[in-house]
Amino acid sequence: MILRVQTNFVEFLEQVLEVLKEVEIDKTECSTLLASIQKQQLVIPVVGNFSTGKSTLLNRFLGSSVLPTGITPETSLATELHYSANERIEAFSNNDEKTESFELNEQSFEVIKENAAKYSTLRFI
Q1: Closest residue by Cα to residue 75 from 55, 47, 96, 103
Q2: Which helix (H) or strand (E) holds 56?
Q3: Is residue 79 included in any domain, yes or no?
Q4: Cα dihedral sign for 108, 113, 115, 117?
Q5: Is the residue at 49 inside a domain?
């Protein structure tokens, strides 16, 4: 719902800017507002005990198996999901510096799981 409203507002502002091209008027505020809305992200925390189905719930919501699932804790690191046409996993060290990028596949999940102590956060993009 929120994404649809955001998309509609962006389309409206783009139309306003198109109309304003023909008029001698400062378009800075409208352009700034448009950029701000396009950058806005909705953050929804999903928290719970180990193996309570958080990854399964998110996979179902996304319509594909993006996050690993299993009986043992699979996503024991803080994990963020972001949309991208170029899907990958970015691992961040304990000082929040990006250390490695991985392809989105089972082998990557195993490598990440084996080296989990090196990372503080994973970002699925």
Answers
A1: 55
A2: helix 54-62
A3: yes
A4: positive
A5: no
